[in-house]
Amino acid sequence: MKDKNMLMIPGPTPVPAQVLQAMAKHPIGHRSGDYSKIQEEVSANLKWLHQTAQDVQMLTVSGTGAMEAGIINFLSRGDRVLVGCNGKFGERWGEVAEAYGLNVERITAEWGKPLDPAAFQEKLAADTEKQIKAVILTHSETSTAVLNDLETINKAVKEHGEALIMVDAVTSMGAISVPIDEWGLDVVASGSQKGFMIPPGLGFVAVSEKAWKAYETANLPRYYLDLGKYRKATAKHTTPFTPPVNLVFGLQVALQMMREEGLEAIFARHQRLTQGTRAAVKALGLSPFAPDDCASPAVTAVLPTGIEAEAIRSTLRNKFDIAMAGGQDHLKGKIFRIGHLGFVCERDILAAIAALEATLQQLGYEGATPGAGVAAAAAVFVG
Fold first, then answer.
1. Residue 38 included in any domain
2. Are residues 215 and 203 in the same domain?
3. Aminotransferase class V domain location, by residue (predicted)?
């Protein structure tokens, strides 16, 4: 049926009708008083979501652009940095850091496994001369559906004293608590098309006072991504460059919806969706790619046996108009990923699991009892 497509990928995520309607309004001048009032409200709500007293900088970029800005504004050429790599996006941040001439040391884990906090602690403790200037890691590694132990790794960074912690929270912000001020996180980047429930095009960077101090002496090249420009403008409820005004309209409404739901309720909903999805996958005789104790709240990666992941995805798309994500790099064709981030509820998961069951039946899969997946998810949701 036309226009019945269902996004069950980790981004872009579904967009509420209220947000779409807000984005359909006629644009206004971004130097007008009316726009400044909207930006003032948006800035206040971004601070609420990020659990910080600092202004959150809003850029017209994707999540990758937000992370690049977070890296280049507070470091200098030749600085030694530790980068956690256990998936596609951790590897990307290492590549970005190297592109700007940073001295990158990677701490790696097998894809599908979490980063070992002890490995960071050991490296940081051994750095008695305080040469390590930053630790860069992905909180929710979307490519493998692994949630890394940000809190414990951050404690090791704090014990070091000198290094900044720079966090890719692109698929964790708005899905799980990231208490920026409480934990003392220095640079936290995210993107609009994930937990924020709006289309791609806006990136967000939260910055600590410690990081702003480092900004004063950092010497990597920057202009459009110079966060100092954004900081001055944001304080005046304006922007240094032309913003995507209609996306900001949508963001205003999305943040209002999030405040109405409440942080704890948002986090609890994502936890329920994660548990229900994983229970359904197991009941169908399929294997979650990531262990239970480090499951991402944004996405569940599934490793099927006896049936091709791409056959599952194509059947879901062609027969049921449901989009699920595939694997990346060496996992392409080996896993598929079910998104449950942002504007997603229990009904969406039940519908997706029911379609997955029908798909498995059509493909001749004999590893599960029909209805077992839906029953397992429902047991989580009504329990």
1. yes
2. yes
3. 10-328
**Single-letter amino acid code for the residue at 146:** V
Residue-level pLDDT at 349? 98
Report the interhelical angle of 346-362 vs 309-320 (nearest 10°): 110
Out of 260, 277, 308, a domain closes at 260
Give the sign of the dihedral formed by CA 111, CA 113, CA 116, CA 120.
positive
| Measured distance between the N- and C-terminal CA atoms of the chain, rounded to whole angstroms | 34
Q: Indicate whether this model's pTM tops 0.70.
A: yes
Output the six-digit token pair for 373. Answer: 């997946």
Cis upstream peptide for 10 (omega within 30°): no
Q: What is the pLDDT of residues 135-156, one digit of tens each?
A: 999 999 999 999 999 999 999 9
pLDDT range class, residue 4, cuts 50, 70, 90: confident
- Cα distance between residue 369 and residue 284, in whole Å: 7
Distance CA 245, CA 316 (A): 35
Q: Which domain holds residue 53?
A: 17-260
Number of domains in the chain: 2
Which CATH number goes with the domain that contains 304? 3.90.1150.10
- Cα 64 to Cα 291: distance, rounded to the nearest angstrom: 26
Calpha distance 241→375 (Å, rounded): 51
Helix (H) or strand (E) holding 196: none
Query: Domain holding 136: CATH number?
Result: 3.40.640.10
User: Are 171 and 310 found together in one domain?
Assistant: no
Contacts of residue 220, defined as CB under 8 A and 6 or more positions apart, other chains included, come to: 72, 73, 75, 76, 77, 100, 101
Instruction: Specify whether 326 is located in the same domain as 207.
Output: no
Task: Provide the token pair at 92.
Answer: 């990307």
Contact of 296 with 290, CB cutoff 8 Å: yes
Q: Which two tokens stand for residue 51?
A: 């659990």
Instruction: Show which of 206, 230, 260 is a domain's final residue.
Output: 260
